[in-house]
């Protein structure tokens, strides 16, 4: 799962990314940097401070929604007025958390937003013989646990969260590597993760839901 932390307070940004180490976290500290990232890359959830050097975070949210993007957005702000909350939620944010906050609460809200947007508000995804527990991060096939690496687990969730959609190799590379994907010479690591994931699930007897789409990418079928 990939997050974008838009926050100009360096220490707070480090605390958030450190606490959320199970996620692939990217950061942006200015209005211009944040706007470029939300317009270029996709995320499972964006944490958005609305007071940024160079501009108002609400404008970023407006530009983001104008692109008809579905990434989850949680506003984190020292401005705790009712008007700010209403404006942020009406503009399209999924949640609003006032500073200061406990990192455990932030993590719970991120999980809730991702669960609601990608997995129909459930903590356990079941597809015939395959079961994925989002909280324990356990994957089982026919009741037997399948040991997946973090990248393989993230890849599986990304594919299942985009069920029946063709996902390009470049989109998978971006999801697994973040904004450094453009600097990589090839997508060989994507092939490797796909191969390993398919091998582990296949050996356990899953229903072969992961399909190659020739010349394009991959599709997870229901």
UniProtKB/TrEMBL annotation:
<feature type="domain" description="OmpR/PhoB-type">
    <location>
        <begin position="122"/>
        <end position="222"/>
    </location>
</feature>
<dbReference type="InterPro" id="IPR001789">
    <property type="entry name" value="Sig_transdc_resp-reg_receiver"/>
</dbReference>
<dbReference type="Pfam" id="PF00486">
    <property type="entry name" value="Trans_reg_C"/>
</dbReference>
<dbReference type="InterPro" id="IPR036388">
    <property type="entry name" value="WH-like_DNA-bd_sf"/>
</dbReference>
<keyword id="KW-0804">Transcription</keyword>
<feature type="modified residue" description="4-aspartylphosphate">
    <location>
        <position position="49"/>
    </location>
</feature>
<dbReference type="InterPro" id="IPR016032">
    <property type="entry name" value="Sig_transdc_resp-reg_C-effctor"/>
</dbReference>
<feature type="domain" description="Response regulatory">
    <location>
        <begin position="2"/>
        <end position="114"/>
    </location>
</feature>
<keyword id="KW-0805">Transcription regulation</keyword>
<dbReference type="InterPro" id="IPR039420">
    <property type="entry name" value="WalR-like"/>
</dbReference>
<keyword id="KW-0238">DNA-binding</keyword>
<keyword id="KW-0902">Two-component regulatory system</keyword>
<keyword id="KW-0597">Phosphoprotein</keyword>
<feature type="DNA-binding region" description="OmpR/PhoB-type">
    <location>
        <begin position="122"/>
        <end position="222"/>
    </location>
</feature>
<dbReference type="Pfam" id="PF00072">
    <property type="entry name" value="Response_reg"/>
</dbReference>
<dbReference type="InterPro" id="IPR001867">
    <property type="entry name" value="OmpR/PhoB-type_DNA-bd"/>
</dbReference>
<protein>
    <submittedName>
        <fullName>Response regulator transcription factor</fullName>
    </submittedName>
</protein>
<dbReference type="InterPro" id="IPR011006">
    <property type="entry name" value="CheY-like_superfamily"/>
</dbReference>
């Amino acid at each position: 799962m990939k997050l974008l932390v838009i926050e100009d307070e360096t220490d707070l940004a480090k605390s958030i990314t450190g606490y959320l180490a199970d996620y692939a976290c990217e950061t942006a500290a200015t209005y211009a940097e944040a706007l470029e990232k939300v317009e270029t890359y996709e995320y499972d959830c964006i944490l958005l401070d609305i007071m940024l050097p160079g501009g108002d975070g609400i404008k970023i949210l407006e530009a983001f929604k104008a692109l008809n993007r579905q990434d989850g957005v949680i506003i984190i702000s020292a401005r705790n007025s009712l008007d700010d909350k209403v404006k942020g939620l009406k503009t399209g944010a999924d949640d609003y958390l006032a500073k200061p906050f406990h990192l455990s609460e932030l993590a719970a809200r991120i999980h809730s937003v991702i669960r609601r947007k990608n997995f129909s508000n459930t903590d356990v995804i079941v597809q015939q013989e395959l079961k994925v527990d989002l909280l324990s991060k356990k994957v089982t096939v026919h009741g037997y646990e399948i040991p997946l690496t973090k990248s393989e687990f993230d890849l599986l969730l990304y594919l299942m969260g985009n069920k029946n959609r063709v996902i390009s190799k470049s989109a998978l590379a971006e999801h697994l590597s973040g904004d450094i994907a453009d600097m990589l010479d090839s997508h060989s690591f994507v092939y490797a993760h796909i191969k390993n994931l398919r091998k582990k699930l296949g050996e356990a007897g899953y229903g072969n839901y992961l399909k190659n789409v020739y010349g394009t990418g991959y599709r997870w079928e229901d």
